[in-house]
Amino acid sequence: MQKLLVNGIIALVIILCLWLFTRKRYSKKASSYNQFKQTDIYKLMHEKGYYSANKKPVFEAVNEQETNELSETVLKIFASFSNFLKKSDLNEKDLQFCCLVKSRLTTLELSEIYCVSQSAIFKRKQKIKELLGFKSDKRTLDAIFEGF
């Protein structure tokens, strides 16, 4: 009986430690995103895509300087994501695309930025997912990037 009680206490301590570790890790990610959301370039990029009164998307043009600035900001704020991408064999354009995905731009917004269909954006995400070694992973590229 006493052994059962001790095992129960040990299990509770382990669960508590795991919960605290997960909470700390989540709050660190949330803190990074909150910091990112305060940047001018984040606000600018997310204000460029909006919905009109008739619920059809209306976008303003995004220039190359803005996408470069957003990429630099993402790489600066999300250090683990930056380190992960630096170890990959992605070209400069794919790295920039990854940063735009990490910034939580929608597929529709990305399709407008790149002047391609949403299907083309989906295919590009799949290609990059494979290049990064996540081919068999069931998660989307967006979900994978959330882990960094």
Give an account of the 3D structure.
With 148 residues, this protein is mainly alpha-helical. About 3% of the residues have low confidence. It has eight helices and two strands. It has a two-stranded antiparallel ribbon with strand order 1-2. α3 packs across α5 and α6 crosses α7. The longest helix has 36 residues. It folds into two domains: 28 residues; 108 residues, no CATH class.
Q: Number of folding domains?
A: 2
Give the low-pLDDT segments. Answer: 24-28
- The SS-based structural class is mainly alpha
Question: What string gives the helices and strands in order?
Answer: HHEEHHHHHH
- Computed over alpha carbons, the radius of gyration is 20 Å
Mean pLDDT: 78
Distance between the termini: 44 Å
Side by side, the strands of the main sheet go 1-2
Number of strand segments:
2
Strand content: under 5%
For the sheet with most strands, the description reads: 2 strands, antiparallel
What is the percent of helical residues?
over 70%
Number of helices: 8
Give the overall silhouette.
elongated
Short description:
This protein is mostly helical. It has helices at 2-37, 40-48, 64-77, 79-86, 92-102, 107-114, 118-131, 141-146, and strands at 49-51, 57-59.
Detail the topology: elements first, then pairings:
Elements: H1 2-37, H2 40-48, E1 49-51, E2 57-59, H3 64-77, H4 79-86, H5 92-102, H6 107-114, H7 118-131, H8 141-146
Antiparallel strand pairs: 1-2
Helix pairs in contact: 3-5, 6-7
